[in-house]
Amino acid sequence: MNTLEVQDLEKTGRKPRDSISSKEVHGTDSDTSSIDVHDFHQAEDDRGREDDPVAAALRHPEDPQNWSTRRKALQLFIMTLAAVVPDFDSGIGIAAMFALAEEYDTTPGIIVNMTSNWSIFLLGWGGIFAVMLMRRYGRLPVLFWSQLLSLGFLIGCTFAPNLSTFAAMRCLAAFFGTAPQVTGLYIVTDLYPFHLQARMLNIWTMGFILSPFLSPFAFGFLVARASWRWAYGIGCIYSAIVVFMIAFFMEETMYDRTVKPVPPRPTTGLRYRVESLLGATGVKMAKYRDSWKTVTWAPLNVMWRPHLLPLMIFEGALFGFSIGVNVTNAVFLEEPAPLGFGFSHFAIAGMYGTPIVAVLLGEVVGRYLNDWIMRTSIRRNNGVFEAESRLWACYIATVLYVVGFIVLGVGMQEHLSPAALVMGWGIAELATMVNTVAVYAYANDAFPKHQGEISGLINLFRTLGGFAVAYFQVPWAEKYGALQTFGCEAAIVAALFLMVVPWTQWKGRSLRERFSLH
């Protein structure tokens, strides 16, 4: 096969591991992720045979990979809207930081440490628990109930009478609201074949990478003119729209194709729809799925793998520092000289348009870059796709990240024009988008049976990194200057990249053959 012939592949609508027999993999088990495209086409030829029971099972209309393109696109659209919710809600606190400090008679630093940082911390742990529930009861009920509870706690933030109540409500909203940030990888792999997954992951990750900047950008203008409670009220309206979309249009994408024979639906029609949404169907189907012991230990069982843990540390540092920039930039820009710029609330809100544009550009760059890397890798390996080829995008992302942070640090310290801040911040966020998609795609290819754990662990590492940064970034910059702060953070990311990515590409296949999960 010469250039992967994407036109032919796009007609298949199935990921190779779901349609190829034991020949699909070169290694010890289905997690070794060296996919032979020739076997892929042979499997698709077999799929069309009317007398083949395996092919008939693959054509089952209940299999989400056999759904229409429009039906799949709707699920991905809702999932992306839902992925915006957790960080969008968290970002409202950035826009309202100074108004909250005035309302509760405290300082912006206490608001950040007591509410923003701890809500970021709980985003990661909420995702781990959501994955456990999804493996037992399905995607839809966990997504619905988590977003409904998150909406309730966000309403509590809106009407909180004191800081303690506000902090508790904000943290609980983050813990329950994070489910879409780990469900998306499940949904993408449930719906789409291998060759389309990186492209669809690009869309989903764009949602939650973009979301922390949307609320400071939109509500910064509002809070400057009206009460901060209006900002949280509008956040509640958006969350309510997402809950409505999930309740009426989202479908259960979990399909138990590994069970032979595939268990039939316990009910049909409207009753099936209601029971699936509320979780009754998941409870009935749980007997066919993994035990509580399995799903509880699965995150730890995946996390220690040597071809995954170093990459998660690298991604956690890279993403975490970018979260820290989002939280602390409002402080830098608001503070008067010599530390900050003394910008008005309107100017600060406008500055948050920078990372929004950068993430959108990152989606476009990542879409074509990942497709090009996939095609080139398959062509050079005579039709075999190696998971480690996904990591070539990290080289480009790391260079851009270092450049962006240094430019941002110089711009802050030397009080250059806002254009320097825009360029530095924008380049860094574009790099974050490209790198995050590459890490998700690699981990998904290396652990195709553990999408939930992969998504939950990456979410945990990135939020733990972001949780810590806001505590030390402002004091560090106040004492030694923004250039040293951002320069050291860029150096840490570059060092982790040099230690992790080339080594993973060099040893990745042997590590997968030795340490992959059965």
From TrEMBL:
PROSITE patterns, A to Z: MFS
Localization of this protein: Membrane
GO terms of molecular function: transmembrane transporter activity
Cellular component annotations (GO), alphabetically ordered: plasma membrane
Spans traversing the lipid bilayer: 76-98, 118-135, 142-161, 167-189, 201-224, 230-250, 308-333, 345-370, 391-410, 422-442, 454-474, 480-504
Region (Disordered): 1-51
PANTHER family documented for this protein: MAJOR FACILITATOR SUPERFAMILY, MAJOR FACILITATOR SUPERFAMILY (MFS) PROFILE DOMAIN-CONTAINING PROTEIN
Pfam families, A to Z: MFS_1
Biased composition (Basic and acidic residues): 8-29, 36-51
Organism from which the protein derives: Schizophyllum amplum
InterPro entries hit by this protein: MFS, MFS_dom, MFS_trans_sf
Name assigned to this protein: Major facilitator superfamily domain-containing protein
Alphabetic keyword roster: Membrane, Transmembrane, Transmembrane helix
Keyword field contains Membrane: yes
Main location: membrane
Membrane-related topology note: Multi-pass membrane protein
Residues covered by the Major facilitator superfamily (MFS) profile domain: 75-505
